């Protein structure tokens, strides 16, 4: 990552085609490759965890069940009884993001959630889903939500554009939150790692002082483990909240 | 529920197509320092298309195969726990009933034994009383017989006494006087003397 004297911290986000010409033709970079890896990881975890299907679960099965129940409770508690229908979607969303965030923390790997194109596509998918569900459940009454209840009709020209704007900005905030968190974390890793290399150029004193940035990177790893699960949770819970509004009569 | 699930799937499919088109047609005007904003790079937009496909496959595998499996295990477990609790509850009820029956039986047996004991005691009392009465009656009759015998003996002895007294008197008088007294007279005098002395 660090190339000579000038260290480019953004270089880690560059996409490279895999399998040479074939990848280039199919637009297949390492990003989809890591998506597949993340998906396979989650599926393998669930498959091997649930394979015993024991009444008294082992460790792996208990972990798989905890994951299931955590998302299931989140979906049903937040969305309501209709949440059970959305549960597989929320589960997919949460574990796609979580696995992406965590796989990206491995050295030499790639974080596909650090690409705004990916996060925005997911956020836009959630946005489209909420709009479709809203129109399906509420029909044209959906548009009445842009005028808050009990507000003076004279404020309508001001309130309605604000409400529409806040509604339209949901996918933007949803996608930028995840993207920015992941980019910031990985840039910080790179910056502190580059400090170590720079300090190594100052001889023995530099070697001693290089312990500082390394220690910071260790602490950052702990922070990023927290951020990784937190951002996946935020994305999923906000999706649940948007869906609750959509299914509310 | 089914309608919503269908809606989710249709929405996902629509998004897969829609976002892919959107991404493919996005202008590459933001080519700045960040590789993420280099939308002219086909790999950046390509990951949206691939991501949509992978996400959709992931969703299908999870919703069709994986999650129902987990749900089945959880459901089986709760079913089993409920069933076991039910069995345990009925077993406890049975045990309680058995204990109550046992206590009742013990109480009954105790009462029966008490009654039996009382009966046996009463019978024994009665038998003892009867025996005592019989013994008393026998003793009384024996005593009466004995008394009768004694009285007879006494009477006999007393009647013999008069004869002896008369003989003795006759003998004494004969010795003293040398005359043999009249037996009739002696008997009369002894009779009157004994009547005087009130010797029966």
Automatic annotation (TrEMBL), chain A:
Q: What residue ranges are annotated as transmembrane? A: 33-50, 84-104, 116-135, 155-179, 191-216, 222-243
| A GO MF label | proton-transporting ATP synthase activity, rotational mechanism
Gene3D superfamilies, per database record? ATP synthase, F0 complex, subunit A
PROSITE patterns tied to this protein: ATPASE_A
A Gene Ontology term for the protein's cellular component:
proton-transporting ATP synthase complex
Q: Where is the signal peptide?
A: none
Keyword Ribonucleoprotein tagged: no
Under the heading SUPFAM superfamilies, the entry gives: F1F0 ATP synthase subunit A (SSF81336)
Q: How does it sit in the membrane?
A: Multi-pass membrane protein
Q: Which UniProt keywords apply?
A: ATP synthesis, Cell membrane, CF(0), Hydrogen ion transport, Ion transport, Membrane, Transmembrane, Transmembrane helix, Transport
- Read off the NCBIfam families from this record: ATP_synt_6_or_A, PRK05815.2-4
Q: Which family does it belong to?
A: Belongs to the ATPase A chain family.
Please state what the protein is called: ATP synthase subunit a
Instruction: Name the source organism.
Output: Acetobacter okinawensis
TrEMBL record, chain B:
Q: What is the protein name given in its UniProt record? A: ATP synthase subunit b
Question: So which residues are the signal peptide here?
Answer: 1-31
The protein's predominant localisation is membrane
InterPro entries recorded for this chain?
ATP_synth_b/b'su_bac/chlpt (IPR002146), ATP_synthase_B_chain (IPR050059)
Q: How does it assemble?
A: F-type ATPases have 2 components, F(1) - the catalytic core - and F(0) - the membrane proton channel. F(1) has five subunits: alpha(3), beta(3), gamma(1), delta(1), epsilon(1). F(0) has three main subunits: a(1), b(2) and c(10-14). The alpha and beta chains form an alternating ring which encloses part of the gamma chain. F(1) is attached to F(0) by a central stalk formed by the gamma and epsilon chains, while a peripheral stalk is formed by the delta and b chains.
Family named by the database record: Belongs to the ATPase B chain family.
Its source organism is Acetobacter okinawensis
Q: Which domain of life is it from?
A: Bacteria
- Would you tell me the Gene Ontology cellular component terms? endomembrane system; plasma membrane; proton-transporting ATP synthase complex
Q: Does the keyword Ion transport apply?
A: yes
* Keywords, ordered alphabetically: ATP synthesis, Cell membrane, CF(0), Coiled coil, Hydrogen ion transport, Ion transport, Membrane, Signal, Transmembrane, Transmembrane helix, Transport
